[in-house]
Amino acid sequence: MSFFVPFDFQKVGPPKPTDSSIFLSLFEEMEVYVIQFSTLPPGPSGKTIAEEAKKLADVLPAGTFQDEPYLSASYDSPFRVLRRHDEIWLKKRSAVTGGRSGEQERET
Fold it and tell me: What is the mean pLDDT of residues 83-91?
């Protein structure tokens, strides 16, 4: 599970975790295809996430996205029952290299 660090804290650096099992991860900038859906608390199951990822992949042109890993995002607390906002993200393949997002172009 990950949490988004608000932009204001990204500029000055997020607070340091006090628990050694908690750590910070940085994601490089990426372009993604997104599908939004809604679930009941406590949030989407692994099965629902896989089904939604397949729905998104089925409407995209072949070869334009990275099949795995896909990312899921949930924006609501478990206490919100209705109109929850969940998403699946598929990384867009690089138009320059035809490879996966984030790959650098190689000279041949």
Answer: 94
For 29, residues 6+ apart whose C-beta sits below 8 A from its C-beta are none
Our CA dihedral for 29, 27, 94, 97, rounded to 10 degrees, sits at 110
Please state, in angstroms and rounded to a whole number, the distance separating the CA atoms of residues 16 and 2: 15
Residue 91 and residue 66 in contact, taking contact as beta carbons nearer than 8 Å = yes
Coil, helix or strand for 46? helix
Look up the pTM and report it. Answer: 0.71
Non-local (6+) Cβ contacts of 17 within 8 A are 23, 24
Q: Are 61 and 51 in contact (CB under 8 A)?
A: no
pLDDT of 58 higher than 90: yes
Give 30 or 9, the one with higher predicted confidence: 30
Environment class of 50 (CB within 10 Å of its CB; exposed 0-12, middle 13-18, buried 19+): middle
**Euclidean distance between CA atoms 42 and 40, whole angstroms:** 6
